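If your schedule permits, I should be very grateful for your opinion on a structural question. I would ask you to consider whether the tokens describe a fold that such a sequence might reasonably adopt. Thank you for your consideration; the sequence and its tokens are set out here.
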Amino acid sequence: MSSTPSRVIFAGGGTGGTVGPGIAIAERLLDLEPALKILFVCSDRAVDRRLLDPGGWSCCPTPACSPSAKPQAAFRFASGWVRTRRLVREILADPSRTRVVALGGFVAPPVVREAVHRGVPVDLLNLDRVAGRANQWIAKRAERILTAVPTELPGALPPTGMPLRRCVLPEGSAETCRLSLGLDPDRPTLLITGASQGARSIDQFLLHLLPRHSDWFDGWQILHLASEDSTALLEEEYSVSGIHAVVLPFLDRMGAAWGAADLAITRGGASSIAELTASRTPSIVLPYPWHEDNHQLRNATELEQAGAIVIRRDPAKGLAAITALESRLAILLRTPDARAKMKASFPTADDDAAAILARVILQPFEPSS
């Protein structure tokens, strides 16, 4: 039987949707074992450091890349795989009492490959209802398959719910949250977020909508978490339209954003869905339009069926998608009763999934034969 770990290595990165849940579990691991050593093996993208640096988490950026069939990108993938394994080989020079937790995405597979080669046990944390190719690959090599949501991965343990960082959970009243973000404490607030990396298609939708229908937002204020290259344009357009808005390229304290919001427009990543559920925020969910497996759509479907959110196609899909989104937004901005009905339709809060997963990770387990 394996021993309780003294070091946990989280492998994943490139998006907030992989790193964020790892941080949530790491927070609870240190609650249980303050002396535990934790390291994040992540991507070299800026979004990973944006999430890891505020908490002072130790991290090792890697040159790992997404796989591709295009020759130049395929070469970068192969090179990144080899160099990432070399980095992990040094990290695992002493593999005793070490556990690897794979968070999915393109960073995790080379880390898992090296861990398995060195006999280090691996836990996979699956975060989406439709497991991606990386998770399908890792699942065949992991000792345990932990999952936040129901999954078709064979051998997975029962779903726990999504692990959430403490900073994404609302604290205090809506008025307190608004004040902390430079908003009017008494005005209804629309939150627009493209998740950790922003969403240009959502930003462009607002830039085209505001000159035509700024009157829709009378009495409202907006907190817009935008892509960096859209921030200045949006600030100018909100000012010209006479709408009080705070536009930011990134916000680590998402709990304040969800706590401030009466309505949200958001992506459908697993973490975004879990965060809006925890805050019970009526939302228009725009799943990322270019995923082949439509996993963001699957993430959001259950909440739409409950009446807590509405799903619309991303405006990048064309005029019909834009018209349908505009129509629903206009209705929800003008109809407090509709928003109240959505808010009341959210399911009851789950147990602290991050704490549940932390306890499982610390448990010794029988290695597979």
